[in-house]
Amino acid sequence: MAAVLWVTPSISADQATEFKPKWEIGIAGAGAWTPHYPAADEGGQRYGAIPYMIYRSRRLKIGEGGLLSGDIFESDRIDITASIRGSLPARSKDNKARAGMPDLDALAEFGPQVVIFLVKRPDVDSISLKLPIRFVASSDFTNLKYRGVVFQPRLAYEHETLFGSGALSGTVSLGPVFATERLMDYFYEVPPQYATPERPAFNADGGYLGSALALGLTYEISDQFSISVGTQLEYYGGATNKNSPLHRSDTGVRAGAALVWKVWTSKSMVPD
Question: What number of H helices and E strands is found in the chain?
Answer without folding.
Answer: 1, 15
